[in-house]
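Exam revision sheet. Question 4 asks you to relate a sequence to its structure. Input first:
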Amino acid sequence: IRLGEQKKGDAEQVLGTALVLLVASSVVLAALGLVFLNPLLRLFGASEQTLPYARDYLQIIVLGSVFQAVGFGLNAVIRGEGNPRIAMFTMLIGALLNTVLDPIFLFGFGWGMRGAAGATVLAQAVSAAWVLSYFLGGKSLLNLHFKNLRLRWPVCRAIVAIGSPPFAMQLAASVLNALLNNQLRTYGGDLAISAMGIVYAVAMFIAMPIFGVNQGAQPIIGYNYGAGNYDRVKKTLQAAAAVATLICMSGFLAVMLYPTKVIALFSRDDPALVELGARAICICLAMLPIVGFQIVGASYFQAVGKPKHAMFLGLSRQVLLLIPAVLILPRLFGLDGLWAALP
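Answer key, structure tokens:
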């Protein structure tokens, strides 16, 4: 929005303030996460069997969270200044390095869960270094100046306001996951938890391109909204909604036509899990065709600086409707009621 208003100096103040907020918040959250790690894992549904593995993994992940915050956070600024190719390289560097290091740390060195976490953190550290070098190396539109590395409260308030909808959605998703895991354990046991894990993996595989469309559309919408070019704002919104819906329809058809084959990709050796997962995925993703439009619609309001609208639309899907459904429907219909809560 500031770049659209031709206020480059203000945009660089946003960059500096954002970096300070990213580092400070990640350090505080890492400290709290380490102190309350065991209670948090139990809250999220870890059993006595899975708790040691989860703890080994998350201790390393939490310690390295500052790298994730800097890499992921400043990557959004790269998109915002209009360099999606560089932003894509940042994500690819981390993803490819993680993919290469995982088998080396897991099997080559025999480090187990800690090795998997270490590979992730090291990949995130390289991504963070790449992003910082981009803003410090003179190749970026916005430059990272030492004088801007401080908390300007008006800028902080604007960042927090516009960032509140996705933050609230992530927080709601965490609360929902904890609630959902406990409900799944009550009504279906570990098999149901595994089935839902596969369903979520498939749903995220379909949703990730939509998030990419969102992230590509947001800087275009924000810039043109700031510049008063509302016709291009509308065209961008329409194009993003159309592509998101097309992605959802494609995923929907694949899931509904071949549910057993989709689940078998994750667990071919467990017939009971494949059978339960195939039923679960058909029910859980029954309303998938309309999800793309809903996600794009909520993100549009964030892009134009209207956080209240964005928050209401985002939370309506994850909190206002879904959490009550997760609590009520299983009492009436058992495990099928839990699957049906999502659509």
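Marking note for examiners. Residues 282 and 317 are 19 Å apart (CA to CA).
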